[in-house]
Structure prediction request, 187 residues.
Amino acid sequence: LIASFCQEDKGLEFEAKASEKFFSLPPPETLPTYEDLMQGMDNVPFDPSWAFRKHGFDRRIVQAPWANKKLDMSIGIKMWVKTDGFVDQLTNLHESLLIYQSDESLADNILIPFGLTWSSPQVFMVSLDHCMWIHKPINVNEWLFVEQEPVTASFERGLSRATVWNSDGVLVSTFLQEALFRERRMN
Prediction:
């Protein structure tokens, strides 16, 4: 772990704002819960013991290649997230919970261009590096939009990135993950 910290202080500042497309996203309450989405699928794309377990976050999928009958392998996983219950405002707890959540599906994006998931029988995948930056205070009691995408893949390694926006369209976090992935030879 490498971590850097600083005291909050006044200084030069600007905010990254979401594109106009952000404000036309479906509200999270109009989307099925992750559990309902998985239960409604003919073929669950992940190991059921993982797909149906509680993760501590309410996840509402806006886009994922496996989220509907028409696969779209051109873009990454995009979802609204917030905690399943209320979290007190303890120092760094909200940031810590977002760090935990950030590892849920980021590396999966590396496999999207190949039409695979980490649960595909021919795939071996393990995380190598995971970097995260917190730009603004985090509140996991409110909906956050996590916009993920694959960046590159070569030499059995791949990189994905994510940006996290609060419900006002302000960038609150950025993260990257590198993973090793190998195609198993199926006999």
Q: What stands out?
A: The longest strand covers residues 171-183. The longest helix spans residues 93-102. Strands lie at 57-63, 78-83, 123-134, 144-154, 157-166, 171-183.
